[in-house]
Structures are given as structure tokens and as C-alpha cells.
Amino acid sequence: xxxxxxxxxxxxxxxxxxxxxxxxxxxxxxxxxxxxxxxxxxxxxxxxxxxxxxxxxxxxxxxxxxxxxxxxxxxxxxxxxxxxxxxxxxxxxxxxxxxxxxxxxxxxxxxxxxxxxxxxxxxxxxxxxxxxxxxxxxxxxxxxxxxxxxxxxxxxxxxxxxxxxxxxxxxxxxxxxxxxxxxxxxxxxxxxxxxxxxxxxxxxxxxxxxxxxxxxxxxxx
Length: 221
Description:
Elements: H1 3-10, H2 19-28, E1 29-34, E2 39-41, E3 49-63, E4 69-75, E5 80-81, E6 96-109, H3 110-119, H4 121-147, H5 150-163, H6 173-180, H7 184-196, E7 200-203, E8 206-209, H8 212-218
Antiparallel strand pairs: 1-6, 2-6, 3-4, 3-5, 3-6, 7-8
Helix pairs in contact: 1-2, 3-4, 5-8, 6-7
């Protein structure tokens, strides 16, 4: 197996794929580099490729009509995007993305991506498994937004960040507020409330959980 195929197999989306499938992915893909804060795609534009993050990170965001920006997530190395719209008949981007720092993407055009899914059963199974995880995550997210207060959503966010196996992701309070559908002042007051109650402490740009059980209770409200 070539060095490039070894690197492909290190990406979670391509783990445990056969050598033959990895070889076809390598032949079908290109590598694109982006500088810091460079727009990668805009919401509503046609989706032309599926993307997998080799290095750097990608911010996924939505811009409302009134100009307010909502950060949906920050994707780290090993993550991927456009794998859903790339197989949708109405293949337009659901959100915009920008690079955070120097970023390198492996991209597969939608035609080649769809052909791979039709001909490589192991890759198709990976995609179906990923769709199932995304649907489960979306169900939890909708429940949080509709039933839980900002205090509960922030507690869930802090726990999710602590449990994440990805590289540390340093969110500003503005980004947290945008992600949770709130504003910076409310997030700041709630974080201070959690710190005053001994639930968390600040460690530089990160928050460390001190009382996980109490935070988990907060997620119920």
C-alpha cells in the first residue's frame, strides 16, 4: 500500500476499508489547500464534491437573512462534510464553511463519489453508518433546542466538549452563543454562574468540568 493510501486509512471515514477501495478513492480524489479564514463554500451553492479534513479545521455556519451568523460546528482533522448533499438529488450546500488556520482537504467530485458508493459496498456501508449517527445527533439537537433552556444547552455543550475524542477545540463565547442560538452576554453570565457554583473552572481558553453530575442535572432543564 502506498504512503497516500496509508494516510487515507488514518482518516476515520476511510478506516477499515479494503486496499482496493482505498486505491480507488486515491485515484478519484484531489487535495486542496486553504489559507486562514478562507471561504470554502457558500450556503445555497451547488455541491460539487465531498470533503475530508486532512489538517487544519473548518467552521460550518449559517447566515440568517438579517445578517446574524450562527456557528453550527467546528470540524477538526479526520472530520468530513458534504457527504450528505453529495448524494442528494437537490445537491446544494446546506451551510457555508470557512477555514480556521491553514487547512488541507481531500475532495472527491460528486460524480466519482456516487460511483464509488455504487461499486464499493464497504464504503457504502460506512456512509450508511455515518448517516445513522448524524440522524441520532440531529434528534438529540432538536430535543435540546425545543425543550431545554440556554442553561441546559450550555451544560450539554460543555459535557460534549469534554467527552470529545477530537483535538481540543477552543471556542470563544461569541462562537458558543452562536452555536447554541443565544447571545454572548447570556452565555457569559451562565458560565460565571457555573463557575461560582463550582461546576466548572476556566483553564486559559478552556473550561474544565469539576462537578459533572451537577452539570448533567442542568441538562434536564
